[in-house]
UniProtKB/TrEMBL annotation:
Lineage, opening ranks: Eukaryota, Fungi, Dikarya, Ascomycota, Pezizomycotina
Pfam families in alphabetical order: DcpS, DcpS_C
Annotated protein name in UniProt: M7GpppX diphosphatase
Tree of life domain: Eukaryota
Origin species: Apiospora phragmitis
Stretches that traverse the bilayer: none
Length: 330
């Protein structure tokens, strides 16, 4: 299928979304998750307010084009309003030149997607090496076998998002040390201070940072250097010390990858304590470990937060807390 045709088909899905209920909305009102249907299939639509464009033609037109302006209050020289931005059209007059929303679409979505995007409480848990080995590792195996990594393999093997790749080692050339770098799908590709990239490794035997060993230290340092060099070369307005590199634990998907973000990116829950673990910290931890080259991150306890509706909580840590046997979902 041609790229233009594929994009047209994707764009045609959003207007067909039939709203059913709100799953969650952040406290700042910038992001909302909706559940509904597209052609009788369950769908999850996430809308997020995009950053303000800094283009002069947009900013010059914005005040005069504000619509539905409502004053919420005023005090001396200060006033507060709600309003909607007016459209600025392309030269052909067909589409808005600047988008008001950033939109993610998951269709068909699963019950796990719905739970992930729904508002829920959090728990802070300790994953010991024993819990990892006996409970969490089998849980990861089940997740990998459900086919949720197909989109990652499409990227690695060059079937999808080829034009988005910023840097990669030639596929298969470097064996276990191959990797590629591309933008995270949540980044708008324009706002530099919101920069968010992913470095995805080619090899498939590393599921998470738990699989990293002392023997991986030179490779991790090499990947760190190449990733930073490629990012700075692609976005010259960024300097090396404006980048943060980290792993998620637990990651959304169990295939080893590193997040690269601008230091000014607003720290959401995905960068909070118990979720983001700095690459440099992992390297330092490995270097300080005693033992041979097979000693690794699976030998230490890790503490992190889990959602109360997540399978990690309901299937593993809640039963452990209540003294019941925990097992991965079948």
């Amino acid at each position: 299928m041609a790229a233009d045709e594929s994009k047209s088909q994707a764009e045609a899905l959003v207007p067909k979304f039939q709203f059913e209920r709100v799953l969650n909305q952040d406290e700042g009102g910038r992001r909302i998750a909706l559940y509904g249907q597209i052609d009788a299939q369950p769908a999850l639509l996430v809308l997020e307010r995009a950053p303000f464009p800094d283009a002069p033609e947009y900013l010059s037109a914005l005040p005069a084009n504000l619509r539905s302006l409502t004053n919420l209050g005023n005090n001396d020289i200060y006033s507060w309003f709600l309003g909607s931005g007016g459209p600025v059209f392309n030269e052909d007059g067909n589409k808005d030149k600047f988008a008001d929303f950033k939109i993610d679409l998951i269709c068909p979505c699963t019950e796990k997607h719905i739970r992930k995007h729904s508002k829920q409480g959090s728990r802070y848990v300790t994953e010991t090496p024993e819990i990892y080995r006996e409970k969490v590792r089998p849980f990861m195996q089940v997740g990998r076998e459900e086919g949720r990594l197909n989109w990652v393999y499409n990227i690695i093997e060059g079937r999808k998002e080829v034009e988005d790749v910023i840097y990669r080692t030639p596929l298969g050339r470097d064996g276990d040390e191959g990797f590629l770098l591309l933008p995270n799908l949540h980044w708008d590709r324009k706002t530099i201070e919101s920069l968010h990239l992913l470095a995805i490794v080619e090899r498939r035997d590393l599921w998470s940072l738990r699989d990293l060993k002392k023997r991986h230290i030179p490779w991790l340092k090499h990947m760190r250097a190449k990733t930073i060099d490629a990012t700075v070369a692609t976005y010259p307005q960024i300097e090396e010390d404006q980048l943060k590199l980290f792993f998620h634990y637990h990651p959304t998907y169990y295939h080893l990858h590193i997040h690269i973000v601008h230091a000014n990116l607003e720290a959401t829950s995905t960068q909070s304590v118990g979720k983001a673990i700095a690459l440099d910290s992992v390297i330092d931890q490995l270097e300080r470990m005693t033992g041979d080259d097979e000693t690794g991150m699976d030998t230490i306890p890790l503490c992190y937060t889990v959602g109360e509706q997540s399978d990690l909580w309901t299937e593993i840590f809640e039963p452990l807390k209540n003294g019941h046997k925990a097992s991965p979902q079948q």
